[in-house]
Specification:
By secondary structure, the protein is α/β, with parallel strands linked by helices. It has three domains: 38 residues, no CATH class; 80 residues, no CATH class; 104 residues, Glutaredoxin (3-Layer(aba) Sandwich), CATH 3.40.30. 55% of the residues lie in helices and 10% in strands.
């Protein structure tokens, strides 16, 4: 009887130790036999902790026992850093140079084919860029410079006609505000050629011209002249270079040098129009 009394509690302890796995197995069977609605999704990991799996069985930090990790999984992995476009372009150029050098130094069929294929890829990329560039310019007038300065024959002819009319109008009204200082020397061959040109511009547009002799000599085109007594420097000119033309603005009392040397009449008028009617950079 005493042996039986001692054995029976031991059997009960053994049964108690094996009972939990049996119950767990039964519960596992019930869980596995339950109908499933689909595969695991990140949102299912955010459900409350299961005390049986997380505490009793102590399965470890699985996704359903650690909601913080589940949230990190739901957010997804961070995107890989993108390579800047400038570095990508530099890498393409470097690879093209490397393939070219290899093909030159080791002119095998494989090396040449590799270089030619890669070069063709870049030519196709450049062609696509040029095509999209043109389409973009067509559809965005603010990007189309040819609207300001046409390059096709018909547009260029129209632009030049309008510019010629604008220059003529400017020259017609020039005498109301501006005068011209013309500096020359009697022994200057370029001055002898240029003086009649300046005279014709003065007569055509009624522009007042004051001829100033740098050496005191006369001028056939301008019988009435003045001798330089510092006017050259006061007009902002340097170096005593002749012939020289200067516009003088009677409103602002400021000289506007037109240029030095021999010039055709059209060039003189074009410079006058540019200096008086256009802002720097607006005509380009």
């Amino acid at each position: 009887m005493r042996k039986t009394a001692y054995v029976f509690p031991a059997v009960l302890a053994l049964v108690a130790q094996t009972a939990t796995p049996i119950v767990a197995t039964a519960q596992d069977a019930q869980t596995s036999s339950a109908p499933t609605t689909g595969a695991f999704t990140p949102t299912s990991a955010l459900s409350p902790r299961d005390a049986f799996y997380c505490e009793q069985r102590k399965l470890g930090s699985w996704f359903y026992c650690d909601p913080d990790k589940a949230r990190e999984m739901a957010k997804g992995k961070p995107a890989a850093p993108t390579v800047p476009a400038a570095k990508q372009l530099a890498a393409i150029s470097e690879q093209l140079d490397e393939l070219k050098a290899r093909a030159i130094l080791e002119p095998t069929s494989e090396n040449l084919a590799s270089y030619m294929r890669f070069q063709r890829e870049q030519l196709d990329r450049a062609s696509t860029f040029a095509d999209v560039w043109g389409r973009t310019v067509w559809q965005n007038p603010d990007l189309d410079y040819t609207l300001e300065r046409p390059i096709n024959s018909l547009g260029k002819q129209t632009w030049m006609t309008d510019r010629k009319a604008a220059k003529s109008s400017t020259m017609q009204g020039l005498s109301q505000r501006y005068g011209v200082f013309y500096f020359y020397s009697s022994n200057c061959s370029a001055c002898r050629v240029f003086s009649p040109i300046v005279r014709s511009i003065s007569d055509q547009y009624g522009l007042e011209v004051l001829a100033v002799s740098m050496d005191g000599g006369g001028n056939e085109a301008f019988p009435r002249f003045a001798v330089n007594t510092g006017q050259y420097q006061r007009m902002g000119l340097t170096g005593n270079q002749v012939p020289a033309l200067v516009l003088f603005d009677t409103q602002t009392k400021q000289p506007i040098p037109i240029g030095y040397g021999l010039m055709a009449a059209d060039e003189v008028m074009d410079r006058i129009f540019t200096l008086t009617q256009t802002k720097p950079g607006s005509d380009y």
